[in-house]
Structure formats: C-alpha cells, structure tokens
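User: Batch of two.

Assistant: Item 1 of 2:
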Amino acid sequence: MLLDWLKLVRATGLVTIYTNITAVVVMAVYANEGLNPKWLFDRLHKEGVAHILWMVTASSLLYMAGMLWNDLADVGRDRVLHPRRPLPSGRINLGTAYLVGVLLAVGALVSAAMVDVHVFHAAGVVLSLIMLYDLVTKDIPWIGSLTMAAVRFSHAIFALSLLGSDYLGWAVVGGDGPRHTTLIAYPVILGVYIFGVTLVSELESRPGRRIELLIGGACMFGAVAAGGWLLATARWITHLSHGDSTLYVVGVGLSAVMGTVLFGLLVWRIWWPWLAALRSGRSEQVGPVVGAALGGIIFLDALVATTAHPLGGVAILCLLPLFLLGKRVVRMD
C-alpha cells in the first residue's frame, strides 16, 4: 500500500524539487559574490531551522499535490492506457485519493503560512497554476506546456523564500538586493526547459508535427546552452589565471571541467533520442526523449549551480544516487 502511494505522488521526483531549490538558492547567494560557503549557511542560520523545515515541507507538498491531482484528472484515461496504476487498478480508493489530494494542497498552504504571509501568497500562486494545469489546460496543445513551464518557474521563485522573504520580494519586484536578473536567471532557464519537455511529451498522446518536436528540442537545448553560457562567463573562472594558491587554481580548474562534463552529458543524453524521434516521426519514439530530459533535470540544476559555486553542483550531484535508487524502487506502471 505504501509503495502504491509513493507511485501515485511520484515520490522519486521529489529529488528534482530539492535540486531545483538548491540551484536557485546557490545562484541567489553566489552569482554576484565570492565563494565563501559560510555565507549560505549564515543566511540559513539567520532564518532558522523551523523556517527551513516549513519551506521544504511546503515545496514537497505542492509537488505531491500536483502529481496526485494529475492522476485524479487522468483516471478515466488511465483505465484504458495504464490499467495497472494505483488508481485505475483499484489498489487505492478513489475517494481516499481525493481526500488526500485536498489535504496535501491545504497542507502546502498551511506550511507556507507558517513562514509568513508573503510566502503563503507565493505558494497560492504555485498551487493555482498546478490546479490549472491538472484540471484545465493539460490536454490543450501548447497551452498545457506553457502552464507547466509556469508551474516550475513560479516554484523556483517561491523557493527563494528559503533565504527569506526579502529574496522573494527582490525576485518579484526588484529592489536593493541582488540583481534581479541573477535571481530569475535559473527560474527562466528551468521554465524554458520544462516547456520543451512538456511540449515533446504531448506528442506521445496526440497527433503532432515534426515542427513541434523541433521547437521542443530547441527549448531544451536552448536552456542547456544558457547554462553553458553561464559557465563560460562564471566569475570564478577568472581565478584560473590569478588564484591565491596552486591548490585553489587546481580546484577551480577541476570545477570548470566538472561543469563542462555536465554540459556535454546533458546534450548527449537528450540529443540521440530526440534525433531518433525527429527522424522517425513516430509517437513511440517520444517516450525515450521525455525520459532522458526529465532525468536530465538534476544535471541541468548541477550545471547552473556550478556556474555560481562549484560546491553547489557537487551538492546536487550527491542527490543523484537517491534519484536513481528511487527510480528502481518506485517504478510507475
């Protein structure tokens, strides 16, 4: 029974939520500053443990609510296409699932309200977009993809609240804090990437044209290219030529290599299945593209985080084994 619930809320995908949070926080703190790891920990310590726990809880519940309501909306179709899934198979009662879906949504808002009213409002925006996608726009070509992109973009903005409501305000309306473009750079990259992935995924279940696959791929590769550009222009790259010590220069050099490998790995894992789907034009070739792209979110997060602080990329990659283990244990039928 527990495994069925984990499948229903796509528990493995929670790892990508945590890597999203890490990427946006690292970018916010280090993109325009030095590399002292103490700065991030000092900021989190200032906000307090309770603040961090409520924020992580709110993000997790928003994600799980979105996944559960997605399956509730699709239960009729899944009885035909995916009869072994927890809801159409009857392993989880439909009424119970609706109740849990409501509790997850309410729990997300309550958790956000425990931080402050601004975070509550931000969570409300994210939840509204989630429900708009699940219940209204998901099956509308292009509009559904735009809505899902807005969901992940708004959640990344919401995640800035982990550093305090002032960061949320700077991202939304600007101000005297970190540069506005720095704060929204990662949310924009993630939103464009998710738009591309979702647009391509639409072609699994509806007739489409190659131009849509081409545009979806362009968005995914464009987001990866933006990460590559951030890496090439990262401030810490300049320390290769005038570092404080040989050890420091070697460390920065290895970080540059890590970022380059992440960039190449992302392009490689998406390019080949996408090219095969583009050549064949068959819907059955779309699944591998979507799988590769969704699995690539962690690598994209690590790449972007590395451009601000190499240790941020390392921290994200440390979550990769948990993601891979989850994929093996919590497999969706």
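Item 2 of 2:
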Amino acid sequence: MRINLQHQPRGILHAVVATALALMLCACAAVTRPPDPSRPRGASDQPYPVVLNANPEREASALAAWSNLLGAGAAGALPTPALRPVTATLIALPPNLSTLPRMPRVIVKDAPQQSEEETRESLRRFIERAAPLLGVAPGELSLVEVTDAPGGAKRARYRQTPFRFPLRNGYGDVEVIFTPDLRVSGLSSTAIPDAERLRLALAAFRGQLIPAEKAVASLADRIVAFTDAAGIEQSHTVSATGDATARELVVFPVQRDGDAVAASTLELHIAWEIYLGAQSPPLLVYVDALTGEQLSAGVAGGD
C-alpha cells in the first residue's frame, strides 16, 4: 500500500514519517516471542491465541486519513491525533480543533431538514472515508442507535461485527457525534483492524472449543478479581457454580502487561462469557474456550 505524503499538512507529514520510522526501528529491534508448544494449534499449525501486531503502515495510514478528513482548508499545522496502541484507531478528536471534520451532505428528497435516510447515508460515506483512522471497513459495522447529544448534536453508535462471535472487553465500538450542519464534534473507535484475516485465523480453532459446562465447572473454588463500580479492586471466591450460566461464546481481545513484545501485540481469544448471579454484585467472567484460562471478570452490565 502506498501513501501519498506530498500534499499532507506539515504537522501531519512529520508525524507520519516519525511514526513510521520509529515503529519500523522498534519492529526490527524487538525479539519475537517463540510460540508456546503447550498452546493449542490451528488446522495449519497456527499458534493460539491469534495475534494482531502493531504495524507502522497501519499507523501511517491512520494519520494520512486524519489529514484527508480535515482537508486542505485547515489552517496551520494540524494537531496529531491520539491513537490506540496496536490497533492505531482514534481515541478521540484533539481538543480545540480550529476546523472540525464534516460529513458529506446527501440529498435524497427536497426537504428543509435532513431525513433519517439521508443522515444514515451521510454517516456511511463519512465512515468509509475515515476507515483507516477507525480501523474498520464500513461493511463490518452495524448501526446500534442514534441518540441526542449535548448542544443539539446527535450521537451515532456502531458495533463492529466481523466475527462469528461478538467482541468484548471494550473492543468493536465506533462513535460519531455530529451537529445539525454535519460537523463532526466527536469521533472514536475501538474497532479491530485486519478483521478478515483474524476471522479466518480464529475459525481454525472452532473444533477445539471446550463445552460450556466444563468452562463453568472450572470456576469452582477460584478467586475472581474484578473492579467494582467505584473503581475499587475486589476479589470473590466462587464457592459453587450452581447459579453460573454460560451465556455465549465471544471474541475477547487482551493486551498483556509486560515487555515491548507484549505492548505491541493484541491477543484475540475465543472465550465463554459466564454470568455469576448469586453474589453481590453479579459478575461476568470470561474463560478461554480453548485453554480454560480465566481472562477477565467485571461487574455484570459494565462491559
């Protein structure tokens, strides 16, 4: 993929070049962690979990898309947007932007106000243009809702649905806040890029999934750590699993703490989402559906 840097504003051009060089140097310096022989292997001897690696081209593409969104009319050097590690998706619009991105105006029928159909098409075209910055193809998104936002704006929430199972752990959400004149005042994404490759890789492990009842039974006498609604770290010992319910299989991305290799990779696990309702507060626990590892836990309704 080639990125045209000739017409990028100076601030973004420097950011693109610096980011690409820095990430390429890091990639060259990093030592790839060898596969764990005890982990499951896919049909083509692919190691598990499936991994998304940080990619300098992905980040450069996101920055170029950011520049294109604001256009040549933006005054002065453009602020560099904050991107998420590994996925290189937009965290939020930089504060105090002098020029906001705009959605294209779509006219389906002559009316004083834009119709719902026209608004959806404006959103679709905007997301298509911003795709490298959001880390998602428009066809992977489903519109969840359009609600009122402060100041007369509207908030459109999308869910990324590229996999057989739904995404969890805060991933897969795209949000666009826009004003009546179609200025975009808020934009963020936790989408997973390179989704088609990852989908095929995850599919290779579907025949190795542990049954729901085995995942539930694995929680007996385990200590479950979680953060409560007040942000306080708590723990709970699962004394019995009679009330536990395996709700569904999900795709659960995990970014591990640790060295530079861990910081530059995102692991994608297939997990059982298990509801524990006997204790207060009720919990959702995520158990790896291939290894039985407890990946995470949280208060039910908090994901």
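DSSP finds seven helices and 13 strands in the chain.
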